[in-house]
């Protein structure tokens, strides 16, 4: 496939504010005249959204860990083939709320599957395709979980795990940043939402050198 467009992913633990920030980033890029496709994982295409339902409606421990990895991988393949790659081919910019780094953290570390098998399956479905830019919305675990509790969000199996579990995920994300410094940027997500948006917009503008577009728009 060609990649005429750009692929940006947002990652982070629970309560980082990703769903608000992906929308704000999409609005910003659209204001510069960019064709934007906003999507998410698990999901982002009809088949992948059906797998999301299968995945979310069952409690922790229902799926065998390897089965869970296969479900997430199957959903990602559908998302790539039906949504992400066609959009990039026509020159759109794709912003995804979570992508493969979530699996490298939640399944490889959280479910103890290890990075080897996670990377193996990823290569089977995507070869060496990776986001151009990944924004890690980073914040202390207690702050993120506090936000989830405040908005009554206890419906997801991973949100119900202990604080140590979430700390492991945060450490896993920060390790990925060190290993992939070229495509990762860390955003401090502990501040208020408007400040996080400003930080994201500035980071994206600098990364893709979009300032001249501001002048033109
Ligand atoms: P969300 O809270 O961002 O909507 O994501 C739903 C849950 O899906 C979240 O707990 C993380 C989990 N997840 C994985 O475990 N592995 C994955 O590969 C992805 C994309 C999400």
How would you describe this protein?
The protein has a 5-stranded parallel sheet, with helices on both faces. It is 56% helix and 12% strand. The protein is globular, with a radius of gyration of 17 Å. By secondary structure, the chain is an alpha/beta fold. It starts with 6 loop residues before the first strand and ends with a helix. The chain has one domain: P-loop containing nucleotide triphosphate hydrolases (Rossmann fold), CATH 3.40.50. The model has no long low-confidence stretch (mean pLDDT 93). The structure holds thymidine-5'-phosphate (TMP).
* Share in helix: 55-70%
Named at the architecture level, the CATH assignment is: 3-Layer(aba) Sandwich
Number of DSSP-assigned strands: 5
- Give the structural class: alpha/beta
Question: Would you spell out the secondary-structure blueprint of this structure?
Answer:
Layout: E1 7-12, H1 18-31, E2 36-40, H2 46-57, H3 65-89, E3 93-97, H4 100-110, H5 115-126, E4 133-138, H6 141-150, H7 163-179, E5 184-188, H8 193-207, H9 211-216
Parallel strand pairs: 1-3, 1-4, 2-3, 4-5
Helix pairs in contact: 1-8, 2-3, 3-5, 4-5, 4-7
The protein binds thymidine-5'-phosphate.
Attribute tags:
5 strands, binds thymidine-5'-phosphate, 56% helix, 217 residues
């Amino acid at each position: 496939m060609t990649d005429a467009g750009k692929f940006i992913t947002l990652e982070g633990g629970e309560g980082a504010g990703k769903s608000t920030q992906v929308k704000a980033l999409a609005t910003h890029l659209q204001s510069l005249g960019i064709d934007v496709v906003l999507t998410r994982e698990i999901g982002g295409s009809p088949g992948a959204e059906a797998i999301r339902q299968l995945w979310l409606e069952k409690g922790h421990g229902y799926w065998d860990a390897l089965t869970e990895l296969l479900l997430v991988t199957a959903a990602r393949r559908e998302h790539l083939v039906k949504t992400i790659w066609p959009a990039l081919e026509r020159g759109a910019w794709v912003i995804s709320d979570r992508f493969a780094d979530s699996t490298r953290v939640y399944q490889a570390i959280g479910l103890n599957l290890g990075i080897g098998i996670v990377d193996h399956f990823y290569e089977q479905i995507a070869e060496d395709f990776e986001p151009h830019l990944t924004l890690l919305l980073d914040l202390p675990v207690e702050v993120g979980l506090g936000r989830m509790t405040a908005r009554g969000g206890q419906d997801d199996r991973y949100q119900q795990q202990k604080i140590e579990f979430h700390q492991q995920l945060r450490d896993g994300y920060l390790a990925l940043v060190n290993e992939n410094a070229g495509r990762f940027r860390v955003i401090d997500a502990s501040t208020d939402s408007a400040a996080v948006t400003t930080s994201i917009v500035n980071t994206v503008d600098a990364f893709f050198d979009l300032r001249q577009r501001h002048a033109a728009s």
